[in-house]
Specification:
Layout (H helix, E strand, L loop, with lengths): L1 H25 L8 E9 L2 E3 L2 E4 L4 E8 L5 E5 L4 E8 L4 E7 L4 E4 L20 E4 L1
Parallel strand pairs: 1-4, 3-9
Antiparallel strand pairs: 1-2, 4-7, 5-6, 8-9
Length: 132
Amino acid sequence: MNEINQTTIASGIIAIALIVGAIVFTTGGDVRSGTKTFDVVMENNRYNPSEIVASVGDRVIINFENRDPVAHGVALPQFNATVPGGHVPAGGTARMEFVADRPIDTDAAVCGGPNPSDTTDDHGEELKVRVI
């Protein structure tokens, strides 16, 4: 009976170690941070959703799909983040990735140039990015 209890305890310890190892591996060692992925559609000079929210420490991935016949500029200079070439091409897709290492509340739509305080640029575009 004693051997069975020791085997059960050892199996439990191994199972817990495997679970903890999987968590550490998938989070890069930081169990407090996560990955937030957003799919944003650009259509009729609007972004849907028009606001994304992440937490400090999150790895943020934004996948853009542009259904408009013109390119749209997006950037977050505060995180040194943009899409390849600075614009999502007309009818195309692009991806922007960054680590949200500080709180922020800004507009990532940069048609006409980056302006963090702009929430009503010339085309009415707005992609509010909030990191809390």
